[in-house]
Structures are given as structure tokens and as C-alpha cells.
Design goal:
CATH architecture of the largest domain: 2-Layer Sandwich
Structural class: alpha/beta
Strand content: 5-15%
Shape: globular
Largest sheet: 5 strands, parallel
Radius of gyration: 28 Å
Strand order of the largest sheet: 2-1-3-4-5
Helix content: 55-70%
Low-confidence stretches: 316-321, 533-538
CATH topology of the largest domain: Alpha-Beta Plaits
Number of helices: 23
Distance between the termini: 46 Å
């Protein structure tokens, strides 16, 4: 079942199309409908429909502009434009935007059904190509030459001396003069119950993930990318020229996670590093991206994590001795005390069969605590806040493994508590800074999540989650409410015309301002000023 979004400012026409098509029979479900271009844009960004069907003449944002914006963000989406105008210029513009069909009104249900069936066949074919096992194997064989891949693997692992790297960079098309470099990692895991279509052929999962990621990366013309499979993940190296915005990379990795989930029915996770100024720092970027990937996995996957959102002071990661120790570190970073207790119990239970003496237990405990303490610098926590004395001296006083475990547990609980406290404080502060910025810039019609996140230096996904949790509203709802509050004040206290007030509160298009005002309060701005109240309005400004 493919999802479709219908946009038409004529409500009757929209309802007519919805009712006269047997959507389920031809393999579609209607995800929603919108009465203007801006609402359609917001709904499409939220719902990610497979097909958008829009009238060409739409308020606030016409159908062609709507398709152009969405094509940049969701290149795999199919577009159908219908119009009451048999205008060759419109048709030309539609062709440039790779619109699937240009249909004249009134819409013929039989003709539209045939068009939708044709688009469904195209979508089926595209998804089949992405999931076809033999095609994936062939794509893998025709991927980047092995020498070039080995070169970039050597860069992220830090195994290539600088002199050799500089001499080989031109051969392997590595631009050493770029303004910045960053690394992202993406992985998709099959379901634990073995229900995946890749069951028994899990080695093909990274290839399919790379195919989807390639399509998204190719849609970005501003930056160059190198992507390849490394172990069970896809590594993306971004090369920045001019403007260096990590938000672009975070957005693309998020879109890739969503596409993998929708197309392959697999849980995807991704991690994004900070931007480095030197190609020789790619090893550090790779370590950061690996850490961010760990966070994404711990948090359930399905989205990309930017390392600086989670670790404001990212250190170079040192290798961890065992999976159990890493599990403890992860539980300290993200987890409750119950999860943390289970991980520590598991580590100590395993050591009983390995270390028969108290002395060996002490050595193990020191190594465990050393691994745990690497977390402190990440969150700017001082050792004095955790220990009252040198921890190595304290360990010497223990006589039994039980004493060591209880002490270790107290230390880990304390670090976990400090991290939770700092994270809560940081998210509250970020939300407060965001609110202040919005209140100071609400009159700017170009104010958006992306521009706000550039100011705050956080990724849009992380910001949206935190802001909604802290304020109880999405960014759009918060901004709209604030703008309308100020609009009400101006209507009450000034003689300004409605279009002047619209611009003062951030709406460049006066008609859209009236539409938003009436949608919230049930009455137009001009009628509100005249004191004509709509008795059916759920809320009304005072």
C-alpha cells in the first residue's frame, strides 16, 4: 500500500477525488489532504507520502513551487499535478521537475486510476530493484574499485602515513584542499525473530542500505561524498567546500534511516561526527561517528545521532577491553539504575570463572574503572565529584569481590546521576535559549528550525525532540502561537492595517496570516477588530 497526499484549495474537488477512487483496490491509502501549499509542505515533511497529487493553483505556495521544494528533500517522491489551465508553460515547468503526470481538470476518475496504477508499477519496480538479491550482488561487484576503498578505509583507521596519503590522494580523488571533512556511519539490523526478507542472506543488507543512501547523497549538489561498506556498516565521508553545515548531513542520514525502515522494513541507526579541518583527522571523525552510532543503537535506532548532541566535549575513544565493559559504559551514558545494575552484575559474574584470586579481581576492577572514567571528560565531570580519595588506594582496601562490586556500583550510579543531571540542565538551557531566540526573531518570515539549529549548534532531530519535551509544543506550534499573540496585541492597540500587522509578526503573505488566524481562533483578523465573535470558535484571544 503506497501513501498519497492530496492538495487542492477547492475542498469539494478534494473530497470528490477522495470518494470517487477505490484507493485500496489499486494499492494506495490517502495519508491526508491540504487546502494550501504551505500546509501541504508541512504535512508532506511529516508524513513522507510516496505520491503527492496537487492542484497547480494553490494559495501561499503553488503546486510547482511545492513540488520543487519537496523534490529537493524527498527525491524519491512521485508528483501528479492537475490544473484547470491548458497552459504549455505550466506543462514545461512540470516536465523540468520530473512530474509523473500533468492532468487537466475536471479530473476523470478512470483516467486518474490508470495514472495511479502506472505510478504504482513504477514504485514497485524501483523497490524491487533495491531489494532484488541478484541485482544487489551485481551492484556490489560494480561498486568502488577495491584499491580506492582500501585507501579510504586506511584513512579512517589511521593506517596510512601522511606522506603516502598525500601522494595517493590524487589517484583516489581525495581532495586534500577541502574546507572540511566529516564522517557518518549507518547500519541496519535484521529483526531478532528472523522475519526479514534477507533471512539467510544478511550479508546483502549493507549493500541495500548503501543503494538507498546513494540516492539521497546524489540529490545534494553542494557537497561531495565518498561512501563504502566497512564491516556491517556504510561509511559516508563528506567533503565540504565553502559553507560547513553539519545539519545537512544529519538531515540526509535521518532521511536514509526513514527510507530503510519504510522500504526494507529494517531498523536503521546512524551516527554523525563533527567537522574536521584536515583530512588527516578522519580517524578522529570515524571514532566520533562510531560513538554516535552506539548512542543511536542504545536509543532504539530509527534516526541519526550527532555526537555533539550527546557528548559536548568529545574525546578520542580508546578501545574497550570487552563487550561487557562497553555495555556498562553505555548504560552509564544512557540508562536507568536498574539497567546499569544488570550490566554490572553481568560483568562481575563473568569474572568469577576467570579471576580466582582477590589480587586479580583488583586488577580487573582498576581496568573497569579506568574505562568508566573516560566518560567523565565527555560530560565535563571532575573526578573529585565522584571520588573522595584516590580510587586506586580505595581498591587496595577491599578484601572480597562482593565489596568491589558494591563499590563499583555506587561509583557507576553516581556518574550516571551526574550525567542525567547535566543532560537535563543542558536540554532545559537549550530550550530556554531557543524560546528566547524565537521571541526575539518571531517577526522574521525566514525563521525556521534549520536557522534556529544553526544558531544553537544542534541537529534538527535532536532539537525537535528536546523542544517538544521541554515546552509541550512543536517549533511550528510555538512560533505560530507567539506570532498570533503579538498579532492580537497589535489588533487591540494599534490602527495598523491587517497586512501591516501580518508583516510585523512574520507573515509575508497577508492572506496566509488571515488563514492561520482564523484556523486558530475561528474568526478573521478584520472581524476580530470589529468585535464580531464566532460563537463556534473553540478558543478566542483576550
Amino acid at each position: 500500500m503506497y501513501s498519497i497526499l492530496i492538495a487542492d484549495d477547492e475542498k469539494e474537488a478534494c473530497e470528490g477525488i477522495t470518494k470517487r477512487i477505490d484507493w485500496e483496490k489499486i494499492g494506495y491509502k490517502v495519508a491526508g489532504s491540504a487546502e494550501n501549499g504551505i500546509d501541504a509542505l508541512e504535512m508532506a515533511e511529516k508524513l513522507h507520502p510516496d505520491v503527492l497529487m496537487t492542484d497547480i493553483k494553490m494559495p501561499y505556495l503553488n503546486g510547482l513551487e511545492l513540488c520543487e521544494r519537496l523534490r529537493k528533500k524527498m527525491p524519491s517522491m512521485k508528483f501528479i499535478i492537475f490544473s484547470g489551465f491548458d497552459d504549455f508553460k505550466f506543462a514545461q515547468e512540470a516536465i523540468k521537475l520530473n512530474v509523473a503526470e500533468y492532468i487537466l481538470k475536471p479530473v476523470d476518475p478512470e483516467g486518474l486510476t490508470a495514472t495511479l496504477k502506472k505510478i504504482k508499477c513504477q514504485l514497485d519496480r524501483e523497490i524491487s530493484e533495491k531489494c532484488d538479491v541478484e541485482l544487489l550482488r551485481k551492484t556490489y561487484e560494480q561498486s568502488l574499485p577495491i584499491m580506492r576503498q582500501q585507501f579510504f578505509v586506511g584513512l579512517i583507521e589511521g593506517n596510512i602515513p601522511k606522506s603516502q596519503m598525500l601522494s595517493q590522494a590524487k589517484t583516489f580523488h581525495a581532495d586534500t584542499n577541502a574546507d572540511g571533512w566529516a564522517v557518518a556511519l549507518m547500519r541496519a539490523d535484521p529483526p531478532a525473530d528472523g522475519s526479514s526478507s534477507f533471512s539467510g542472506r544478511e550479508e546483502l543488507i549493507p549493500i541495500s542500505v548503501k543503494e538507498i543512501l546513494d540516492g539521497i547523497l546524489q540529490s545534494n549538489a553542494k557537497n561531495r561524498f565518498v561512501d563504502f561498506i566497512h564491516f556491517d556498516a556504510v561509511v559516508v565521508i563528506a567533503v565540504f567546500h565553502g559553507e560547513k553545515s553539519i545539519m545537512m548531513m544529519c538531515n540526509m542520514m535521518n532521511e536514509a534511516c526513514e527510507s530503510v525502515g519504510r522500504i526494507l522494513k529494517l531498523k536503521a541507526m546512524a551516527g554523525v561526527s563533527t567537522i574536521k579541518n584536515d583530512i588527516c583527522q578522519l580517524r578522529s571523525s570515524y571514532q566520533e561517528a562510531s560513538g554516535a552510532l552506539e548512542y543511536s543503537a542504545i536509543m532504539g535506532g530509527g534516526k541519526a545521532i550527532y555526537i555533539q548532541d550527546m557528548e559536548p566535549h568529545t574525546p578520542l575513544k580508546a578501545p574497550i577491553g570487552s563487550e561487557e565493559v562497553q555495555a556498562v559504559v553505555n548504560a552509564i551514558k544512557i540508562g536507568d539504575t536498574e539497567q546499569l545494575k544488570k550490566k554490572i552484575d553481568a560483568v562481575f559474574s563473568r569474572q568469577k570463572d576467570i579471576f580466582p584470586t582477590v589480587g586479580q579481581y583488583k586488577i580487573f576492577l582498576m581496568e573497569l574503572i579506568a574505562s568508566v572514567l573516560k566518560v567523565l571528560s565527555t560530560y565535563d565531570i571532575r573526578e573529585e565529584e565522584i571520588f573522595s580519595a584516590d580510587f586506586s588506594e580505595m581498591i587496595e582496601k577491599f578484601h572480597t569481590p562482593d565489596e568491589m562490586k558494591q563499590w563499583c556500583m555506587k561509583v557507576c550510579f553516581k556518574i550516571n546521576s551526574e550525567i542525567v543531571s547535566k543532560r537535563v540542565n543542558n536540554t532545559k538551557l537549550m530550550a530556554q535559549n531557543a524560546e528566547k531566540y524565537i521571541q526575539e526573531n518571531y517577526a522574521n518570515p525566514d525563521l525556521s528550525v534549520d536557522s534556529l539549529c544553526l544558531y544553537l549548534h544542534v541537529s534538527p532531530t535532536y532539537f525537535s525532540t528536546v523542544f517538544k519535551r521541554e515546552t509541550g509544543k512543536s517549533f511550528v506550534s510555538y512560533l505560530t502561537d507567539l506570532r498570533l499573540q503579538h498579532a492580537v496585541d497589535l489588533l487591540n492597540t494599534t490602527e495598523d492595517k491587517t497586512y501591516i500587522i501580518a508583516r510585523k509578526v512574520g507573515y509575508f503573505e497577508p492572506n496566509y496570516f488571515s488563514y492561520v488566524f482564523k484556523k486558530k481562533y475561528g474568526i478573521s483578523p478584520s472581524r476580530y477588530r470589529r468585535g464580531t465573535v464566532n460563537e463556534n470558535a473553540e478558543t478566542f484571544p483576550t
